Amino acid sequence: MSDLTTQQLKLGLSSHNNNYLFSNHYLDNILKERDAWRNQWHAAVKHGRDLLLFLQPLYEQERNQLPDYSESQLEEHWFKPIFTYLGHTYEGQAKIPALQERGVKFPDYVFFPDDATRQTAVSTQKTDAYVNDALAVGEVKKWGISLDRKLKSGQVNFDNNNPMFQIDYYLRATGLTWGILSNGRVWRLLHKDSSYKLDVYFELDLEEAITKQNSAIAAFFVLFFQQANFRPDAQGRTFLQEALTASTRYAQELEEDLRDNAYRALEHLIQGFIEPDRNNLTADDLPAIYDNSLYLLYRIIFLFYGERRGLLPMGNPDYAERSLTQLAQDIADQLDKGRDFPLTSRLLWCRLEELWLFGISWGLV
Fold it and tell me: Is 267 exposed, middle or buried (0-12, 13-18, 19+ CB in 10 A)?
C-alpha cells in the first residue's frame, strides 16, 4: 500500500462527507481501532481495493457516455453492475401500496436479502406485506445532477422534486430503515429517523475514489453500501444499525465530556488572568474577565474545529506551522520531555497572538 493511501486510511482524509448521520470522530478513529470493528474495517480496506480493480475498467469503458445516459441507461450500464458487485438483490419499480394509492412514482429499487425472499415478495406485491422482509429502498438519478435541489422543469411533479425529498418519502411510505440515493458519482446513505430533515446523510464520491485510486473512499463505500451490512444476523443485528447506535452513543458521551472539559478550560482561563498579581485585577473586573475568557475559549474551539475539518488552510505551510494544532502538538511534546511552563510565561500567548494576527490577515478569524 502506498504511503499516501496509508495516510488516507489512518486520517480519513477526503474519504467521506458525513453530514450529521454518524459521528465523524467515531468513523475516522473508533470504527477503525476498536476491537469490535477492527477486523471489519481491515476487511473493508481489502475489499475496497478489489472494488477499485472492478470499477476502473467499467469507468474507463463508460466514462464518456455517463453524462449523456438517460436514467434508465445509467441504471443498466452503471448502477446495476455496482449493486450486483456489492451483493445486492433488488426489484425495480416495485408496486408499493402506500405509493400506488397516491399516484406517486415507485422507487427505483427495493433491496432484499436474497433472491428467494425477492421472489416470495413478488406474490405480495400491491399489499403492505411486500416490504416486510426488504432491507432498504433506493433511488437513482442521472449522472451528476444535484441531489439537493429539484430539477429545472416547467412541470412540477414528484419526479422533478428534490431527490432528498423523494427518498425520504419512500422511506416513510415503506417503513424501511435505510435508503440509498445516488446520481452515479455521489452516493448517499440515509436513515428513516432523520431523512425528513433533508440534510442528514452519509455521502461518498465514488468517481473520486476511482480517478484518484482513493482506497479510503473505497473502503468506506464497501463498508456502508455492501449488501452484507444491511442484512440482519442470527440475532437480528445489522452492521449499519450497530454502527449508528454506537456512533450516536459515542457522540453523546463525547458531548458530555466536551461540556465538562469546556467548563474546566474556562475555569483555567479565568484563573490565568486573575492569579498573577501583576495583572492588578479586582472583583469589579470579574464580568469582563468571564466574557473575554469565554470569547477566547470559543475562538480556540473554532480553530481546533476548523483545522480538523479542513475549513482552515492546514495544507498551507505558512498557516500549518502557526496553527493551533501545531501549537498543541509542540506543548504535548515538551510536556512529554518533562518541561514545565511557568504560569507567568508569555511564550505560548505570543504564539496565539501571532495566530490571531495571521488569521485576521487572511480573513479567517
Answer: exposed
- Classified as helix, coil or strand, 188 is strand
Euclidean distance between CA atoms 307 and 129, whole angstroms: 49
Q: What is the pLDDT of residues 59-72, one digit of tens each?
A: 999 999 999 999 99
**Considering only CA atoms, which of 240, 255, 258 is closest in space to residue 22?**
240
Tracing cell 406474490 back to the chain, one arrives at 123
How many Å apart are CA 98 and CA 126, to the nearest integer? 9
**Distance (Å, whole) CA 244 – CA 26:** 10
Give the residue among 216, 238, 208 at the shortest CA–CA distance from 226: 238
Per-residue cell: 114: 436474497
Residue with grid cell 427505483, as numbered in its chain: 108
Is the pTM higher than 0.90? no
**Nine cell digits for residue 135:** 432491507
Can you tell me the distance from the alpha carbon of 63 to that of 210, in angstroms, rounded to the nearest whole number? 11
Q: What is the pLDDT of residues 254-291, one digit of tens each?
A: 666 666 677 778 888 888 888 777 788 888 888 888 88
Contact 313/323 with Cβ under 8 angstroms?
A: no
Q: What is the mean pLDDT of the chain?
A: 84
Question: Is the separation of the CB atoms in 32 and 38 below 8 Å?
Answer: yes
For residues 93 and 71, what is the distance between their CA atoms, to the nearest angstrom?
Answer: 13
Q: Where are the alpha helices (DSSP H) in the chain?
A: 3-11, 24-25, 31-33, 35-62, 71-74, 80-85, 97-100, 115-122, 163-174, 206-211, 215-225, 239-274, 286-308, 317-320, 324-336, 347-361
- Of the pLDDT bands very low, low, confident and very high (cuts 50, 70, 90), residue 364 is low
Count Cβ atoms within 10 A of the Cβ of residue 219 and give its class: 0-12 exposed, 13-18 middle, 19 or more buried. buried
Alpha-carbon distance of 203 to 338, in angstroms, equals 44
Please return the burial class of 248, using the count of CB atoms within 10 Å of its CB with bins 0-12, 13-18 and 19+: middle
**Which runs of consecutive H residues, i.e. helices, occur in 103-183?**
115-122, 163-174
